[in-house]
Amino acid sequence: MKTIQLISTTEIIPGDNDRTIFDQGDLNDLARSIKEMGLIQPITVRIIDNESTDPMYAIVAGERRFRACQLINLTEIPVIVEDLTDEEASTIMLSENVSRADLDPIDEANAYQKRINAFGWSVAEIAEKAGVTQVRVQFRLKLLRLRSDLQLMTRSGNLSLGYAQIIASANLDPNFQTIAIAALRDNTNPTPTWFRRICGELSNKQAQSKMFDDALFTGKPVTYQPVETLPDPPHPSTTTPPTIGGSHREIITNQIGFWEKAASLWDLAGKPFKRQECQSAAQALNGLLITIL
Fold first, then answer.
1. Are residues 22 and 70 in the same domain?
2. What's the pLDDT at 70?
């Protein structure tokens, strides 16, 4: 059951939020807006102590808005109270956080892994509940293979997400990750193609050194790990974009977004020509859209 109530801010606590970083400048801007216009969109909470005469409420969605309200010392705010299980609350929180463009990619990766551990969700289930592609979920999860310092660099933007993804996809151990990041640092004009080749070479050296150690020093039989393969993103030669929308304009707009997303996935996969072909499909639809406006 869903109700809207005015609740004291002292009775509200953060939930198990996936987001660990909140930009102070953005919070200040939001606080000013709430002070002028009020809290237009209530936050969503659930009761965490049903037996108490003074129950507490945990935030399910809207912690950023709640923090902004605290900045301007609001004592009561409107909230949507929902009766939710842990898994239901986790689903809502994931959907809201991932939909925001500024979500930290490491926070996003940890959010996916947390739900795998807590609820046994598959990659397909995570993608459906988060509203993203399975390829994106798999790419993000790979970021958790990075050393903690490289994860921090990825959070801050000192290591671009594309290059972080290349290191993570190569499945390098901490020592070889150090070599990879040193090569990237020393190249004054790196490209993703070049760096993917460097990481591939390091991955081969890592495999050779492990085989050498296992076979000659530990006496263990050499084992081979299967290469992890990901499904290819959509491509104009193999995929028909979905027809979603109530009008021709909406359908074409959604298909443009479909090909733009596919282009970004091909870019992550290191296939610039396929990225360009997806971008061309989006541009062609843009031209069609102009003719019906």
1. yes
2. 93
Cα gap 199→161, rounded to integer Å: 15
Domain-embedded: residue 257: yes
State the total domains in the chain. Answer: 3
Domain boundary among 84, 103, 138: 84
Q: In what order do the strands lie in the sheet with 12-13?
A: 2-8, 76-82, 43-47, 57-61, 12-13
Q: Print the SS3 string covering 179-225.
A: HHHHHHHHCCCCCHHHHHHHHHHHHHHHHHHHHHHHHHHHCCCCCCC
Q: Rounded to the nearest 5 degrees, what angle is found at the Cα of 149, between the Cα atoms of 148 and 153?
A: 115
Q: Residues 132-186: pLDDT tens digits?
A: 999 999 999 999 999 999 999 999 889 999 999 999 999 999 999 999 999 999 9
In a domain, 243, yes or no: no
Which residue in 11, 63, 87, 108 is the catalytic one? 63
Q: Find, among 127, 157, 166, the residue nearest to 261 by Cα.
A: 127
Q: Please tell me the distance from the alpha carbon of residue 101 to that of residue 106, in angstroms, as a whole number.
A: 13
Domain ranges, residue 286: 248-292
Q: Among this protein's residues, is 88 annotated catalytic?
A: no
Statement to judge: residues 71 and 25 lie in one domain: yes
> Which residue bears the tokens 């947390």?
114
Helix, strand, or coil (residue 152)? helix
Beta strands 43-47 and 57-61, pairing class: antiparallel
Phi, psi of 176, rounded to the nearest 5 degrees? -70, -25
Q: Are residues 6 and 76 in the same domain?
A: yes
Nearest of 111, 151, 145, 160 to residue 131 by alpha carbon? 111
